[in-house]
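Title: Comparing notes on inverse folding

I've been comparing how different people in this forum approach sequence design from structure. To keep things fair, I'm posting one structure and asking everyone to reply with a full sequence. Here's the target:
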């Protein structure tokens, strides 16, 4: 690739970027669309390193984009899998309370489910035991609409649709510079220059850096949190019939260590949430001095660390010592032992943090002169990728007019 011209360039080959590209080529067949992905394959980072859950929308604030996109996205994801013969299993989710405090929190969570248009079923100890004989708890709620899918496979299918309809997917194309002028967006990559009428940036872990390349001043910074998983041995592939989650702490943005049936037929445990030492730091040995220096220079980083110091230290301890991690699992699955926690790839979550140290919980999009930037796309972004793509196209048309007119 030398000097490539395209109407719209999409930066980021995760499921959000590729979903957006797919919907662009489907709705506007006269527009040329190019997707840039820095890795050798699509869905390499957050899309390919999550629990594979189709979330139903249990946890999210009523009226938020998260709640809306999750509910719409679950239905859209299942419909897409059915249409394209991709694997999924709507196995349902159990959220299990193991003490009085968690039962109280479960009451609030059940009410939120109802507000978000779900139909949770309340279970007592006996009903829980009947559904999941190897799980213990004082109470639970069952959300039948949750399930599991293969998000990298979904992304690849979406990319195939993009290509079939005339779009271009360029992997191995890392963005090293970007600027907006009155007439175009110029994107410098490791494979050459791309000149586009407009840009939609779905950069995930690099979202704030890509904004700065465009000359924008983000009011947040991406802080990476690693989620570590384990895989259970084959002898425990039948340990659960549903997804089994603990009751989350409402003051924390993470859902807790859960048992997840995977499309491959095995079961994973996880994730926890520890500060990563690099934006793509999938293990303790992955350290990036630039990433650490940027975090240390950002006031919001120290504020969020101070506000969550106790839980953060506990998560770090459980990461280093598997016995602590195991204790989190044994609250609701007492038969697990240390030998059951077998290696499995970790993931890294791109968490946007504001300058005052607040975690950005909802989806966040900023506009440039000729670009849209997805700044925060937290879980359930994979579940919500199809409605997020539609939302971005709506924002695009509001900001720049129809892609058929505004791309040039």
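Reply #1:
Here's my take.
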């Amino acid at each position: 690739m030398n000097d490539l011209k395209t109407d719209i360039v999409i930066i980021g080959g995760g499921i959000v970027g590729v979903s957006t590209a797919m919907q662009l080529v489907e709705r506007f067949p006269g527009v040329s669309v190019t997707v840039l992905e820095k890795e050798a394959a699509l869905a390499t980072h957050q899309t390919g390193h999550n629990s594979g859950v189709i979330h139903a929308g249990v946890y999210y604030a009523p009226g938020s984009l998260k709640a809306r996109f999750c509910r719409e996205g679950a239905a859209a994801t299942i419909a897409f899998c059915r249409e394209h013969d991709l694997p999924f299993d709507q196995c349902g989710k159990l959220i299990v309370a193991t003490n009085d405090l968690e039962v109280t929190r479960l009451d609030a969570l059940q009410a939120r489910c109802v507000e978000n248009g779900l139909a949770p079923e309340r279970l007592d100890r006996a009903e829980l035991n009947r559904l999941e004989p190897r799980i213990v708890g004082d109470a639970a709620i069952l959300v039948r609409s949750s399930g599991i899918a293969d998000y990298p496979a979904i992304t690849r299918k979406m990319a195939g649709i993009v290509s079939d309809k005339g779009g271009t997917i360029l992997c191995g194309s890392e963005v090293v510079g970007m600027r907006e002028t009155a007439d175009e967006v110029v994107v410098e990559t490791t494979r050459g220059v791309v000149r586009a009428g407009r840009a939609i940036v779905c950069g995930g872990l690099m979202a704030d850096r890509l904004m700065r390349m465009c000359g924008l001043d983000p009011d947040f910074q991406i802080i990476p949190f690693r989620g570590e998983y384990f895989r259970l041995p084959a002898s425990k592939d039948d340990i659960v019939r549903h997804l089994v989650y603990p009751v989350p702490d409402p003051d924390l943005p993470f859902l807790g260590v859960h048992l997840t049936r995977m499309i491959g037929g095995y079961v994973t445990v996880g994730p926890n949430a520890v500060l990563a030492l690099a934006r793509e730091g999938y293990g303790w040995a992955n350290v990036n001095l630039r990433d650490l220096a940027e975090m240390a220079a950002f006031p919001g980083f120290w504020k969020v660390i101070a506000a969550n110091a106790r839980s953060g230290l506990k998560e770090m301890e459980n990461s280093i010592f598997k016995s602590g991690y195991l204790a989190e699992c044994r609250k609701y699955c007492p038969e697990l032992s240390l030998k059951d926690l077998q290696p499995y790839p970790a993931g890294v979550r791109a968490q946007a943090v504001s300058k005052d140290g607040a975690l950005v919980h909802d989806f966040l999009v900023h506009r440039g002169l000729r670009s849209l930037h997805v700044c925060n796309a937290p879980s359930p972004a994979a579940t919500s990728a199809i409605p997020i793509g539609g939302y971005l196209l709506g924002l695009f048309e509001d900001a720049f007019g129809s892609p058929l007119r505004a791309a040039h």
